[in-house]
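Recall the central idea of this unit: under ordinary conditions, the amino acid sequence of a chain determines the structure it adopts. In this exercise we apply that idea directly, starting from the sequence alone.
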Amino acid sequence: MFEPLTSDDKRTLLRLARDAVTAAVNGESLIRPELDTLPASLQQIGACFVTLTRDGDLRGCIGGLEADEPLAYDAQDHAAQTALYDYRFPPVSPDELDDIEIEVSVLTQPQPLPYDKATDLLRLLRPGVDGVIISSGLRRATFLPQVWERIPDTADFLSLLCQKMGAPEDEWLKVKLEVQTYQAEKFTEAEFK
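Accordingly, the structure predicted from this sequence is:
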């Protein structure tokens, strides 16, 4: 498990994400902070997802599962990408900026979840705790831990995750998928207002 972020760390990440969304939407260049001006926790290599909502409705969500750059930069990159490139939504427009709420989910390193048969997953997965990645060949999909709030039933969760991967919803029952789990520390701008 990762070391929990401080309130100041969270505020800094949310500010960096907000600045990145604003710059991206306005067609401006992303300004990177000097790493040595940031807390050590944000300088470390980390992975996160950035979720945008508007009036409580999803407006975009993009992130990475593998940590490959400093957490501060990862948050900036995914915030800008979410604002402009989530294929499910048109790009965020400048007039929406004041109505957009930002959520950041900092992820732990995904770990394989060994299992023998599909029904084992119903017992092994921890609703509300585990983010889940499923893979089959070149296809892969994930749900963040907070998705359990909308889909609390484990079988339904796995079925919808299969659909997200582009497979039949009962794929998890018929094929032994590669399954990984991770946890996330999630926080929103609203928590600091």
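The mean pLDDT is 96.
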